[in-house]
Specification:
heterodimer, A: about 525 residues, Rossmann fold, 3 domains, 17 helices, 23 strands, about 25% strand, globular, disordered C terminus, B: about 350 residues, mainly alpha, two-stranded antiparallel sheet, about 70% helix, ABC_transporter-like_CS (chain A), ATP binding (chain A)
């Protein structure tokens, strides 16, 4: 597709956009056109160049080459304020709200001039009622759920009456019901003539919502399509260049010994905006994978730290690892009981960015794998371990001497996963094992987790991706507002039911916080 | 148009080139400084940098000055790598001197071969004990070790003053604030006849080797490096933050204490209230100019020693204040911090779009 064939009425037209960062071409010759009232998907894996392209449109960064036409006029978007002036609004994946301010104050900060707060609150209520985005302008942001915060961001954009709205991976923080609600809002906006650029890697969502799609791969356009006429498989081929891989699952063995028991785990968070864990109960047995679903920020971080030992508890019994009461043990002592752990953040927590993979292998495998002799590092053995990890888990990029930060997210995750799995843990805890990882690597990692289970390891997976949990888990529980639902066998659970539970509404949940009830009401 | 552009990866070459660049810039700025003071820059720099090295005695004095810097900087580097900011090596140096002096005075005229090892141990332990105060306050109350260790320098200075003006004052010393001269058994043997260069240099070299082995070969050193590079990763891996703090501060304190012992048992032969010429503070600069690496610290301590001696030279022959050495130290650190920008960034000409 070239610009000459585009309809002259395109609201936004990009031609030959190229963006070069030191050492990497993020965008290469990208053409894209969005008509008024069109919901246009930008589809691609992580690292395909979607975010860079959106930053160029929103004026966060400038293209190295290429042309942007806004409503027929060639423009140079100087900065985000200029973009907003033109009529472009953007809702980022990571919100930019001040936690200690109210909704109205946050909105006021983004508007030009010094709007009067009472008048602004009225306008916020008006817009939120019109588009089905209930938010109370008087509440402070830290008390809002993630879904509500996203609504604040959207309302903030809508107040400026944009003619193009960019949504960057908006559903990663929402329950399935909240996603449906968001789609209704977006469809209504489009019907009123607003164009929407919808960035995602979730194929079914794009099929349900978008009129057309531009697929990116490796910084280039790899195809255009009408999502309604495609299958997820055909779009996946465009996105990754091959068929979607699948995992071999097989039934759980069941009846294994209990490797992790949470017995009434309660813990108050040190962080004033953290989540307090309240009376969590769970058992994970050898030979099964238990998943914990939930919208991010509902206590997952706190729970993981309490299990891993990065945060020690006041009492011993609430966390039991392989039969030992471990609540007061250090992270190192818990590893010696047979726990291995894959954290959500790879760089800086799961791996030391500046150190080579050899040293990053030493990070957690030093004692268990005999990589230390009499207090001194056994360099040869450490290298052999890192190389085994790289070979077994197909880690590409630079070999054992490459710094962790030089690897792509997916390859680093494969290395960390490999490092933990090769230690033959009795209990593996993995957080967001495939977050930000390309489809091929994600399938590989899921298969590795399943294989580990088949060898008799107990596995706990905490993830925000419901699809992933349904693919690999034997049982699934939900965390919401620092409480944990009873687990359900995966065969008996449905996406809808788990989605509803993610709002904190499971049978016997009893006293839910007002926040939870509010969230559920409009879910 | 000039602009800074982030490098895709930190430059390893610049990591080591940056101290050289800083040294060259320091010399250039020093030349300008001499000119502004109405002195001939070429003569000034010659006196400052070349004259001290012209004979064996000059070289031995250089190594003598470098010894305490090397020891202090080596100990500090172990902590700095783990983000433990011990700024109080100066105080730990004085306490080391006090500890060694205590044993020397207690031994009196004894000719036992155990006096020197005793002083060695006493100096290192006293320095470590002084550093244990910030370590304990940090692990117990999360008190900032920068402030505590720095404040303790002044306490240490007053303690030394009290001792040499009071209980340890030499009765035959015409009321000078100093102790008696140590007995021969309490003095470090001289390495080269006709110079003041003493056994302390070998301690310093041994400390450099030991630090290298600790940093790069031991598991404990690896844990400290991880703690400095990525504290969350250290917590994740289960490395004890408490142990890191204690190790970092105790190593720094013991090494500085050893340096203090070598000073009183070496060139001074007694304890006075003019004990230190700011070695403990200068060692901070040495540690950073040396990239927290033992080999780098060896070279940087020679450079810093040269600045000390050069300062004395220009004071003597050009009638300039001795504080010119401090100005040079400051310039060196200033230019180093500036040059370090180019480890992560590079200069580009032209606008962003054209450069890309």
């Amino acid at each position: 597709m070239t610009t000459s064939s585009l309809p002259p009425t395109a609201r936004l037209a990009l031609h030959g956009i190229r963006k070069v960062y030191p050492g990497v071409v993020a965008n290469d010759g990208i053409d894209l056109a969005v008509a008024p009232g069109e919901i246009h998907a930008v589809l691609g894996e992580n690292g395909a160049g979607k975010s860079t392209l959106m930053k160029i449109i929103y004026g966060v960064t400038r293209p190295s080459a290429g042309e942007i036409r806004w409503e027929g006029q060639a423009v140079t978007v100087r900065d985000p304020a200029h973009a907003r002036e033109l009529g472009i609004g953007m809702v980022f994946q990571h919100f930019s709200l001040f936690e200690t301010l109210t909704v109205a104050e946050n909105v006021a900060l983004a508007l030009p001039g010094r709007p009067e707060l009472r008048e602004l609150s009225r306008r916020i209520e008006e817009v939120s009622a019109r588009y089905g985005l209930p938010v109370d302008p008087r509440r402070t942001v830290h008390a809002l759920s993630v879904g509500e915060r996203q609504r604040v961001e959207i309302v903030r954009c809508l107040l400026q009456q944009p003619r193009l709205l960019i949504m960057d991976e908006p559903t990663s923080v929402l329950t399935p019901q909240a996603v449906e609600k968001l789609f209704e809002t977006l469809r209504r906006l489009a019907a009123e003539g607003c164009s929407i650029l919808y960035i995602s890697h979730k194929l079914d969502e794009i099929r349900a919502l978008c009129h057309s799609a531009t697929v990116l791969r490796g910084g280039r356009v790899s195809g255009h399509c009408r999502p309604a006429e495609e299958t997820p498989a055909s779009m996946a081929r465009m996105m990754i260049g091959k068929d979607l891989p699948h995992c071999e699952h097989g039934p759980a063995q069941g009846g294994g010994e209990i490797r992790l028991r949470l017995a009434g785990l309660s813990h108050a968070s040190d962080d004033p905006y953290g989540v307090d864990l309240r009376d969590l109960h769970l058992e994970v047995r050898a030979g099964e994978i238990v998943g914990i679903a939930g919208v991010s920020g509902n206590g997952q971080q706190e729970l993981l730290r309490a299990i891993s030992g990065e945060e020690r508890l006041a009492e011993k019994h609430p966390v039991q690892i392989c039969g030992a009461e471990a609540g007061r043990l250090s992270a190192g002592a818990r590893r010696r009981l047979g726990l291995c752990f894959v954290p959500e953040e790879r760089l800086g927590r799961g791996a030391v960015p500046a150190l080579p993979l050899v040293d990053n292998g030493l990070l957690t495998a030093a004692r268990g794998q005999g990589l230390v002799r009499a207090g001194f590092l056994a360099r040869g053995k450490a290298r052999a371990f890192a190389e085994r990890c790289i070979a077994t888990f197909d880690v590409r990029g630079g070999g054992a001497d490459a710094a962790a930060q030089s690897l792509s997210g997916g390859n680093l995750q494969k290395f960390i996963m490999g490092r933990e799995i090769l230690q033959a843990p009795k209990l593996l805890v993995a957080a967001q094992p495939t977050w930000g990882v390309d489809v091929g690597a994600a399938a590989f990692i899921r298969q590795a987790i399943i294989d580990l289970r088949n060898r008799g390891c107990a596995v706990l997976v905490i993830s925000e991706e419901l699809d992933e949990l349904f693919e690999i888990c034997d049982r699934i529980a939900v965390i919401a507002q620092g409480r944990l639902s009873p687990p359900r066998d995966i065969g008996e659970a449905s996406m809808e039911e788990i989605g509803l539970w993610m709002s904190g509404l499971w049978p016997g949940a009893g006293t839910s916080a007002p926040n939870t009830a509010g969230e559920a009401a409009h879910a | 148009m000039l602009r800074l552009e982030a490098r895709p990866q930190a430059s390893r070459l610049m990591t080591w080139l940056s101290p050289l660049l800083a040294a060259v810039l320091t010399l250039a700025a020093g030349g300008v400084l001499f000119a502004l003071l109405g002195k001939d820059p070429a003569e000034g720099l010659r006196l400052f940098l070349i004259a001290p090295l012209k004979d064996l005695y000059g070289l031995s004095e250089l190594l003598l000055k470098a010894t305490p810097l090397m020891l202090c900087a080596t100990g500090l580097a172990i902590g700095f790598r783990a983000n433990i900011w011990n700024i109080g090596a100066e105080g730990q140096f004085m306490l080391g001197a006090v500890g060694a002096t205590g044993i020397a005075l207690w031994a009196g005229e004894s000719e036992s071969a155990l006096v020197l090892p005793g002083m060695l141990l006493g100096g290192a332990l006293a320095g470590a004990a002084w550093a244990a105060i910030p370590a304990w306050l940090k692990t117990r109350f999360n008190a900032n070790e920068i402030l505590v260790s720095l404040m303790l320098v002044y306490v240490a200075q007053l303690l030394v003053s009290w001792l040499v003006f009071g209980p340890w004052k030499d009765p035959q010393g015409f009321n000078f604030p100093q102790t008696v001269m140590f007995a021969d058994a309490a003095l470090l043997p001289v390495l080269v006849d006709g110079t003041r260069l003493h056994l302390g240099l070998l301690f310093a070299l041994a400390a450099l080797v030991a630090a290298y082995v600790f940093m790069y070969r031991s598991h404990a050193g690896f844990r400290m490096r991880v703690a400095g590079e990525a504290p969350d990763a250290a917590r994740y891996a289960g490395f004890s933050a408490r142990r890191t703090i204690w190790t970092g501060l105790l190593c720094g304190g013991a090494a500085a204490g050893l340096a203090g012992m070598a000073e009183v048992a070496g060139p001074m032969g007694q304890l006075t209230d003019k004990l230190s010429l700011g070695y403990g503070f200068a060692a901070i600069i040495v540690a950073f100019v040396g990239r927290l690496h033992p080999l780098g610290i060896f070279l940087a301590s020679l450079l810093m020693a040269l600045l000390y001696i050069g300062g004395e030279q220009v004071q003597q022959y050009m009638n300039l204040p001795n504080s010119i050495a401090l100005v040079f130290q400051g310039l060196l650190l200033f230019f180093l911090l500036g040059a370090d920008v180019f480890i992560r960034y590079r200069l580009r000409f032209g606008s962003e779009a054209a450069g890309a």
